[in-house]
Design a protein that fits this description.
disordered N terminus, VC0802-like, 136 residues, alpha+beta
Length: 136
């Protein structure tokens, strides 16, 4: 059985913000919504089922290859702090700082990390804003 290193999740707001360690992931990503099954072989980064249909986050290349419609091209950033699922305030601090700079953001909370999807044109500026926030 492989050994997985697991550090205790952080739940203190100030510690989460200070240690968020944002990283810009490669590629461009899009959100699509569908009421039909995804084409065979597609491996979405994430899916979420709503009453209106299935939302999937896909690489832009995958969406283009399969002629899937999307509105916004985003870049994906990961907050590498191991935040607790019960932690309070990290996403509020991040979304508030980005809103103050006019940057739209879709936040996906996974088990270990929070992930941000921002308009591709704002990716570098987002990284700057988050690094400044972590130092403050």
């Amino acid at each position: 059985m492989p050994h997985t290193h697991f550090m205790s999740p952080i739940s203190d707001r100030d510690d989460m913000v200070r240690q968020m360690d944002p990283a810009l992931n490669p590629g461009e990503w899009v959100f699509i919504r569908t009421n039909t099954p995804l084409p065979q072989g597609i491996q979405p980064l994430m899916t979420f089922r709503e009453d209106e249909g299935l939302t999937a986050i896909l690489s832009r290349d995958t969406a283009d290859t399969h002629d899937l419609r999307y509105d916004l091209v985003t870049r994906w950033l990961t907050l590498r702090v191991n935040s607790s699922l019960e932690g309070v305030g990290l996403t509020a601090a991040v979304s508030s700082a980005l809103a103050d700079h006019g940057i739209a953001c879709n936040i996906v909370a996974a088990f270990t990390h929070d992930h941000l999807f921002v308009p591709a044109r704002d990716a570098d500026r987002t990284l700057d804003v988050l690094q400044t926030l972590a130092r403050s």
